[in-house]
Amino acid sequence: MLKQRILTAAALGLPALALVAWGPNWAVLALVALVLGLASWEWGGLAGLENPLARGALVAAVVVPVVALGLAPVAGLHYLILGLVLLWWLVILLLLPFYRERETAAPASRRTLFAVAAIMTLVPAGMGLVWLHALAPLLVVYLVVLVGLADTGAYFAGKALGRNPLAPHISPGKTREGLLGGLLTVLAFAIVVAAAWGLEPMDAMVFLLLSVLIGLVSVVGDLFESILKRQAGEKDSGSLLPGHGGILDRFDSMVAAAPVFLAGLLWLALIPAPPVAA
Fold this sequence. Notes:
- The relative contact order is 0.15.
- Helices cover 76% and strands 3% of the residues.
- Strands 1-2 form a two-stranded antiparallel sheet.
- Helix 2 runs antiparallel to helix 3.
- Strand 1 (165-167) and strand 2 (171-175) form a beta hairpin.
- It is mainly alpha-helical.
- It has nine helices and two strands; from the N terminus they run H-H-H-H-H-H-E-E-H-H-H.
- The longest helix is centred in the last third of the chain and has 32 residues, at 201-232.
- The chain has helices at 2-22, 25-47, 52-71, 76-95, 107-135, 137-161, 176-196, 201-232, 247-267; strands at 165-167, 171-175.
């Protein structure tokens, strides 16, 4: 299984990273729209949308705003969405400890709640990735690698040292030791990158703290998707990626990390904020 996961990640991840690093912004927008289209299709399956037209409508409700926001100049709407998604993930973080698996009131309620959650989660993630790429493509590469290392470090640390469950009602396999291993891996990576980029000491310190925060936020995204799958009674969101499951299973950490990383970079002035279009 691990070998299959590595092969799949290399076959798809390396070309995608090359495109992000050296490709034009419109190509990255197209890639993000494709990934989010597939992810929202899987999300529709978890929501119980069996009608292809209904699932297609959910895909359109995610992809169309992402493309529109990606093509438009940065305006007040972009910052409003960024602020709202920070509040969204804060609420999810605060509610995670209280989650207990239960049936939703009715299938229609579940479909509605899942659809709203898809839009609130995926649209800002896509906007954030495309926006950040327009400002600093290498920071998108950094973010993708950071999230991957957080997951990898947590996996190996959890297997070797895991004793204490992190969120037993949500994802019994995750441990606090695994979380710590993932965060230490992120910190080590951030130190290397900060040194390689020649950041000033104060900027480097802020960059390291932000990177560790993003490692934590990526876990929140992972746990949130685990809740969706539990409510849907599914182990994976799909089967498109051998060894990984579905697109959403690989993208769950990124949907939380991307907008928070962008907001942190802008707020901490680690990258210049673009002028707001009238």
